[in-house]
Amino acid sequence: MEADFPIPLISLKDGFLENVLEKAPFGFSLMSGDYVVEFANDIWLEIAGKTREEVTGKNLFDVFPETKDQLIPLCESVRQSRKPFHAPEFSIRLKRNGVFQEVYFNFIYHPVYNTDGDFQHFVTVAMEVTEMVEIKSKVKEDEERLRLATESSQTATWDLDMHTYELVHSPYLSTIFGYEPEIKPSLKQLRNHICEVDRKEIVDKAFSEALETGIYRYEAQLKDENGVEKWIFTNGKVFFDDAGKPTRMLGVLQDITERKKSEILLQHRNHQLNTALDATKLGIFDMNPITLEKYNFSPRFLEIFGYDSKTERIDSHIFEKHIHENFCETRVAALQRARETGDLYYQTKIVLRDGSDKWIELYGKLMQPLRGSEAYISGTIRDITERKNFERTIGESEKKYRFLADAMPQIVWIAETDGKLTYFNKATLDYSGKNYNEFVEEDGWIEIVHPDEQQENIKQWEHSVATKQPFNFEHRFRNKDNQYRWFLSRAFPDMDEEGNVKKWVGTSTDINDMKKQESQKNDFIKMANHELKTPVTTIKGYVQLLKKMRGDSEDKFLVNSLNTIENQVNKLTALISDLLDISRIESGRLPLNRKEFSLLKLVTETIEDIKASEQSHEIDFELKHPGDITVYADKERITQVLNNLLTNAIKYSPKSKSVSVALFVHEECAIVSVRDYGIGMDQEELNKIFERFYRVSGEDEETFPGFGIGLFIVKDIMDRHQGKVWVESEKNKGSEFHFSLPIFKN
Ligand code: ADP
Fold this sequence. Notes:
The protein has 24 helices and 27 strands. By secondary structure, it is of the alpha+beta class. It has 6 domains: 7-128, PAS domain (Beta-Lactamase, 2-Layer Sandwich), CATH 3.30.450.20; 144-261, PAS domain (Beta-Lactamase, 2-Layer Sandwich), CATH 3.30.450; 281-383, 2-Layer Sandwich (Beta-Lactamase), CATH 3.30.450; 390-510, Beta-Lactamase, CATH 3.30.450.20; 516-584; 591-742, Histidine kinase-like ATPase, C-terminal domain (Heat Shock Protein 90, 2-Layer Sandwich), CATH 3.30.565. The protein is elongated and about 195 Å long. The chain binds adenosine-5'-diphosphate. Adenosine-5'-diphosphate (ADP) binds at residues 648-649, 652, 676, 678-681, 689, 694-696, 701, 706-712, 735.
């Protein structure tokens, strides 16, 4: 078999070639077919770590028995195949200088044949590459380490060919852009993920800048393949050729979404904090707790102290300079407390450079030191001048009111929102002979209230406090001589804009004399009733008797006189019973005697009765309901109500001739209305006519007889029936009174 590159047998004895080979920069040796080293040059010996004598003429495997297993098969295959064997970075375990080493060679085993084609020699050419291999593997290790480092720091790497714009990148870069790691999106695809504004304003700008400076850096926002919004940061370097043309760009890329989010959140928080601080108008500073030096002043701090934060530099002992002399002790005491508790708080006056003064409130907290730093006090100040002035004004006006309250002979008291009484004027103390503290102590005031009224008093007061309704109560208070007098207590809530009670202001007026007079009056009425009733009943009896005896007499004067006497006696009887009713109403003794009855019948009968005695007016009646209406009420009292309304309608419409009565049902109530076309009333009078003894004052009314008690009784009767009475009226046009009662249902 022919060798590919048969090397002619060369005589190594030929001095020239021997010399050349001996000094060649690679290892060279010539070995016979039975592995006897015939020649080895200097480098080969150096690689082998042997002298020429140790190897020349010796069997290679006697010299390096450790290589026998590895090399003999190799040599034999070369001999057989007649082809040279190339081995790059071929590793051999060699004992060199007495030490086993892993050694790397780029080497060639070449078979040499004679002209007849017979095998003659092995030529070995070897170049040691151990060092290069080691470096290579180190580079590989480094690369691996870098890869691990970048992956664990969530950093992707990329490499851009600046001629072709071909991009090579790590799998993690695909992940950042929302692709599977094995997918390799192109530069164009990746670019499309970056938000349009950022692409133009940030990425393209950074790219053209990189071509000038060699550094490519930016932060931009993108929407990844899954539509997730992310922030990325890239940092790259441009490589230029000798002509200054960019050839390649290498860089790293990171997903900084979380950082950005927290940055934005932080910005937001800072903004919120600043806004909150602005709103509170707090000035901030830090302070060394030992030297009391201050630093890190906020602009607002300086503003409060009257400095321009932009142009002026501030002394760290600003407080000492400005504190008002009267407050130095306050400050020392506050600092002492701060040392013990960690909290600094005081209010002080400060004097500004222009001589004016201000009130400030200072609050500080001792911050525990972090490692490597010192403890400090974080402080705030607030300008409270306005508040102080306001407090002073309030204080002065309160003093004024207290003075006024004390000067009043009436009892004045103030209660808090929850109903607790916290102030009593001097008159209270003078009356009761107690001192202020005795009153203010837990419900101390109730002690002077008569035991009979105490329970109801507390109940009513609690009701007012709960409902924010004015308080109105009559009770007896014990004076310093242990005697009780009647008082009328009233209290009104003082509300803020939102309707919350700020305070209750109450007064108690001595009504003892009034009460006494009233009961005397009631006693008198009762007595008068009694005394009047007997003779009037007697007169009535005699008139009726006379009428029976002489009612059909020819003597018109006599008959008319008897009728007039009877009418007037009837009126007198009604008046007396009205007066009796009033005293009964006031003492709460007007009983109702309820039963079911037909309201329709009651109305028609009452109209008939009135018609019999009053002929001056037509009274027409309209039933605006199909059928009868039954109510459950005191029949006599309801008759009294209608009677009253009808007689009033007639009395107050002297110029008209008619009165209309209607009966109807509305929302489950029976309503009776009495309409007249008389003198009518003003709107403001309408509310008062149901009050006791109220009479409309006017020229017209003065000509009408009456006491102003009829409607008061009507109202009381209707109230006690859970019914209603009301009126519509217009001056000179007439009035319409209505009363309503719940319908009775079985
Ligand atoms: P009096 O005894 O004065 O009638 P009332 O209590 O019945 O007392 O009425 C109170 C006041 O109401 C009357 O004085 C009168 O001014 C007014 N009043 C009552 N009814 C009418 C009416 N139908 N038209 C006009 N005014 C009326």
